[in-house]
Write a structure and sequence with these properties.
The complex is a heterodimer of chains A (147) and B (399). Chain A is of the alpha+beta class and 147 residues long. Chain A is 38% helix and 17% strand. Chain A contains five helices and three strands. In chain A, helix 4 (87-93) packs across helix 5 (102-123). Chain B folds into two domains: 17-256, Type I PLP-dependent aspartate aminotransferase-like (Major domain) (Aspartate Aminotransferase, domain 2, 3-Layer(aba) Sandwich), CATH 3.40.640.10; 258-389, Aspartate Aminotransferase, domain 1. Chain B is built from 16 helices and twelve strands. In chain B, helix 8 links the parallel strand 6 and strand 7. The two termini of chain B are 41 Å apart. Classes of the chains: A alpha+beta (147), B alpha/beta (399).
Chain lengths: 147, 399
């Protein structure tokens, strides 16, 4: 397993790791295959700009590094810009991932979408182009989730 | 400078300098082919014969019952496939366990694809096989039972003598994969009454690419490699002379220092286990505390994923291994950890540390401190731990 230097750097010194109290939106997604769980918190202001973002991840180095990079890519962006951040963009920003690890980057994209979905629901708004991620784990019904 | 602390001796070992010394002349001076009739060849043949006799003596076998192979994997493939084939007129039922090395379990799957029926014995939460289960599973058409002597991941030592006795009462052949066991547990093939036994040189400070299969006289098995008349016509291919010499030398050394080496490893292992379980919350020892390989410690740390754990420890100079899916390059966590009943998310957070005679107390204490730091860091990052601390039930999505 050869990770790029950038992956190892983000794994060793993850950016935006932590929690946000009373977040504007929070999303948790899980991937049963690899045993990764990723949670993203947003603080979004009235203009719809992501003022702060934090993550927590249970998973391999690729999962941690993609979480770190994905949060960097959406910080300070508008909701629409954040929605446009793809797993391919996250991968590319990390100078690539080993083929068996590419699915980890999908999780980062989904975690962002899940947190945006939560933000939209809380505020009764519709974000154009946003669908609820399949692996979304709803906070209040997580015990019923079956994968 | 970051130290290098090698705690992955179940993966492979450092070749003993005396082993290298014994091997070297057979590359450049005594390089003859043992099948050649001239003196250079006959000298090599004599060296191989001597090595075979010494290896046989160490396990109380007859020299002609030791067959050199390319390693544990080949020995296991041979024992399963060719023996099943040789007895296929009598029956096509094979019994093995749920915690075998892939060299056995994948060979069993190969047999299944070729018309054999396989029964996998389960294990208890310590990884132990219940002899009563073998008694219940064995049938008139069972020809072969293959059980791992000591498990490579969790270190559990199986009741081989008892399992062999049950197998023989029912007229079947008993094979054991002793790749991890040889040099770590006393092995006497007569006392244990096993018919076949696999071993690998690089697990006990010998070179890679050499192993052997013990086949008791009278056991039917077909030749595994067709070709020349080497190994009593049962395994063709020019002998790996330096490898054979090196393996024999490594076994001499390991048997000679058995008592002090295994005591040293057991003492350090128990110190490591005691400290980790006492000082790292939500940790558990996998495998049996007593019926355990001397150098093996296998832990699970809840809320932590194994590959992240391994890479973080590597950054502190500690080399170990994990049963996590990500660490193994596959998508499922270790079949051994699942077989002892660990849920997926806990199996993902496993760490195997395997010691050697060179491991020191300072290295173990350094390792414990490193584990404490790394586990705390990864838990701080883990949403599973966050939920646990918040008093929520654990996310049950990782199935």
């Amino acid at each position: 397993m050869a990770y790029s230097e950038k992956v190892m750097e983000h794994f060793t010194n993850p950016r935006n790791m932590g929690e946000i109290e009373n977040p504007s939106g929070v999303g948790t997604v899980g991937n049963a295959q690899c045993g990764d769980i990723m949670r993203v918190y947003f603080d979004i202001d009235d203009e719809g700009i992501i003022r702060d973002v934090k993550f927590k991840t249970f998973g391999c180095a690729a999962a941690v590094a993609t979480s770190s990079m994905a949060t960097e890519l959406v910080k300070g962006k508008t909701v629409q810009e954040a929605l446009a951040v793809t797993n391919a963009a996250v991968c590319e920003a990390l100078d690539g991932l080993p083929p068996i690890k590419v699915h980890c980057s999908l999780l980062a994209e989904e975690a962002i979408h899940a947190a945006l979905w939560d933000y939209a629901e809380k505020n009764g708004i519709v974000i154009e182009g946003l669908e609820q991620p399949k692996s979304d784990i709803h906070e209040d019904e997580e015990d019923e989730e079956e994968y | 400078m970051t130290p290098q602390i090698y705690l992955d001796n179940a993966a492979t070992t450092r070749v003993h300098p005396k082993v290298v010394e014994a091997m070297l002349p057979f590359f450049t001076e005594g390089y003859g082919n043992p099948s050649s009739l001239y003196e250079l060849g006959q000298q090599a043949k004599a060296a191989v014969t001597d090595a075979r006799e010494r290896i046989a003596a160490h396990i109380n076998a007859k020299a002609q019952d030791i067959y050199f192979t390319s390693g544990g994997t080949e020995s296991d493939n041979w024992a399963l496939k060719s023996t099943a084939d040789a007895y296929s007129d009598k029956g096509r039922h094979i019994i093995t366990s749920a915690i075998e090395h892939h060299a056995i379990s994948h060979s069993a799957e190969w047999l299944k694809r070729h018309g054999y029926e396989i029964t996998y014995l389960g294990v208890d939460e310590k990884g132990l096989i219940d002899p009563a289960e073998l008694e219940a599973a064995i049938r008139p058409d069972t020809t072969l039972v293959s059980i791992i002597f000591a498990n490579n991941e969790i270190g559990t030592i199986e009741p081989i003598k008892e399992l062999a006795a049950i197998t023989h009462r029912h007229g079947a052949v008993f094979h054991t994969d002793a790749v991890q066991a040889l040099t770590n547990i006393p092995i006497d093939v007569v006392d244990l009454d096993v018919d076949m036994l696999s071993a690998s040189g690089h697990k006990f400070s010998g070179p890679k690419g050499i192993g052997f299969l013990y086949i008791r006289k009278g056991i039917k098995t077909k030749s595994f490699l067709d070709g020349g008349a080497q190994e009593r016509k049962r395994r063709a291919s020019t002998e790996n002379v330096p490898g054979i010499i090196g393996m024999a030398r490594a076994l001499d050394i390991a048997i000679e220092n058995y008592a002090e080496r295994t005591k040293h490893e057991c003492d350090l292992r128990d110190h490591l286990i005691r400290r980790v379980l006492a000082e790292v919350e939500h940790s558990r020892l996998n495998g049996d505390a007593v019926k355990r390989l001397p150098g093996n410690a296998n832990f699970s740390f809840e809320f932590v994923e194994g590959e992240s754990l391994l890479l973080s420890l590597e950054q502190k100079g500690i080399l170990g291994s994990s049963g996590s899916a990500c660490a193994s390059g596959s998508l499922d966590p270790s079949h051994v950890l699942l077989a002892i009943g660990l849920p997926h998310e806990i199996a993902h957070g496993s760490l195997r540390l395997t010691l050697s005679e060179d491991t020191t107390l300072d290295e173990i204490d350094y390792t414990v401190e490193a584990i404490k730091e790394v586990v705390a860091h990864l838990r701080n990052m883990s949403p599973l731990f966050e939920d646990f601390v918040a008093g929520k039930k654990k996310i049950s999505a990782v199935k």
